[in-house]
Amino acid sequence: MPREISVEPIVAAFAGAPVRNGLRNRLYLAVRQAILSGRLPAGAELPSSRSLARELGVARNTVLRAYELLLAEGYLEGRGGSGTFVSERIRAPQGTMTEGAGGNGQAAVSARGKTLLAHAASSRLQGGAFMPGIPDVSHFPFAAWRRILGRYLRPEQRHLAQYGYGGYGPLKTVLAQYLGMTRMMSCTPQQVVIVNGTHQAVDLIARVLADVGDRAWMEDPGYWGARNVLQAAGLEVVAQPVDGEGLAIRPEERERPPRLIFVSPSCQYPTGAVMSLGRRLDLLEYAERHGSWVIEDDYDNEMRFHSQPIASLFGLSRSQRVIYVGTFSKVLFPGLRLAYLVVPPALAESFTVANAELYREGRLAEQAALAEFIDDGHFSAHIRRMRPLYRERMETLRELLSGELGAAVSFLGGHAGLHLTVQFAEPLDDVAIAASALNEGVICRPLSRYSLEAATRRSGMVLGFAPVPVEHMKRPVEVLLRAIGAHSRPGVPRREG
Q1: Could you tell me what percentage of the chain is helix, strand and coil, using 3-state DSSP and rounding each to the nearest 5?
Q2: Going by CATH, does the domain composed of 141-376 fall within 3.30.470.30?
Q3: Secondary structure element (H or E) that encloses residue 158, with its range
């Protein structure tokens, strides 16, 4: 005979269950957790719905609905007229089982996962001063976007609600035309591969063109997101320094050619350096000679303040050794999560198949709306509106910081993009400065965290000015200045007051 049980395990679990999901779900989670933790062992009899409802102070129907769900999922079993019991198939392992990653936290994570988590730099906060790479979405023409998108969410457009394959054709056509005009690229729509963000783009490249253990060169300092994706794909990431002309390959590394080379030649991230023509030609010649593939990250070339976008490496390459990566997150809004690759003709089919196989394409309605958005001129008009606005914010931030810090800092870049990089003249603890600023609600990225190697590490801040209106810039600047002053050394002025 199954032993009698009290309601205490359920009552205790119910008291600790999340309250935001409704009483039925709260009770369901409580009973499930009591079963999985072993507090309700296999074969244990549950209280009747009536008695449990009375004990918890809930409606009997709440208990019945929770029991029904647990029965359907196999946690409980009914024994014709005898009551409701914990399923005999539920055998909790020795020790306490918890909700989450195997109950062991980091111990359950693979070596590759631990490496990824150790170098993670994503912020839980994704907006405000001075978050890099975040546009001011308040100026985006949502009315036009909503009107266009609405036309592709009607019943007659239901084919766009299906999985996709190869991306939305008209968007690929529009992009090929746009890149031809703005980046001096000659490509067909078939060479364009639509993906969900730059990280997916880099992951796809790594999986199609490289094997585990292959080497990948990264700019140092460079984009931490690409570094983490390449490492997670099993590649050996090798740092290559950056100077005022962009990527500066170490002479000794030239004898060990990599499979992949990740660069941001038009506006190096985070320094803002533009790769010189000599370096571009040398890189392309090296890739051709050694069979390497260049990943060209063109993340915010649209936002140039003193010139038109710079022509691409892809367009300069005669040997077709460049994979071009573009994104709409920096220009339009981050939540759109649409980016694209342009690959050489010989690789178009391989990338199209691999993308569909690995990631199950969709979001065709958004792709259709974006094609029309670009074709109707909204995209170019938005860029024209935002360029002077972002330039004003960048110049204001630069003036406020230079006025207080003077020669204690230098500025890198500032001719394009959505961030300004500040380098300290003296090696300050930029991680501690960023932590102090965050305590007052201001997000700053420490420049040192963008480096792979300690020998090339620079001390400074990467500051995203784009989401901060000029009239609201003074307070976060004051917060940053206080943080710098609190961690300064001789030679770095402190802000008084």
Answers
A1: 45, 15, 40
A2: no
A3: none
Q: 396-431 pLDDT, tens per residue?
A: 999 999 999 999 999 998 888 899 999 999 989 999
| CA distance linking residue 390 with residue 331, whole number of Å | 11
What is the maximum span of the chain, computed from C-alpha positions, in angstroms?
A: 85
| Residue 246, pLDDT score | 94
Nearest 10 degrees: Cα torsion 37, 38, 40, 42: 130
Residue type, 157: Q
Does 101 score more than 70 pLDDT?
A: no
Using 50, 70 and 90 to split pLDDT, how confident is the model at 377?
A: very high
Query: Could you tell me the end-to-end alpha-carbon distance of the chain, in angstroms, rounded to an integer?
Result: 77
pLDDT tens, position by position, 363-372:
999 999 999 9
Top-level class of domain 381-486: alpha beta
Contact 472, 259 (CB under 8 A): no
Backbone φ, ψ for residue 323 (5° rounding): -110, 120
Alpha helix segments (H runs only) across 183-268: 198-209, 224-232
The C-alpha atoms of residue 296 and residue 265 are separated, in whole angstroms, by: 7
Domain-wise residue ranges, the chain: 8-86, 141-376, 381-486
pTM of the model: 0.78
Backbone φ and ψ of 349, nearest 5°: -65, -40
Write down the number of H helices and E strands in the chain. 16, 14
**What distance in Å separates the CA atoms of residue 491 and residue 66, rounded to the nearest whole number?**
66
Q: Are 472 and 486 in contact (CB under 8 A)?
A: no
Residue 258, phi then psi, degrees to nearest 5: -90, 170
Q: Is 19 exposed, middle or buried (0-12, 13-18, 19+ CB in 10 A)?
A: exposed
Which CATH architecture is the domain 8-86 placed in? Orthogonal Bundle (1.10)
CB 235 within 8 A of CB 260: yes
Distance separating alpha carbons of residues 62 and 40, to the nearest angstrom: 20
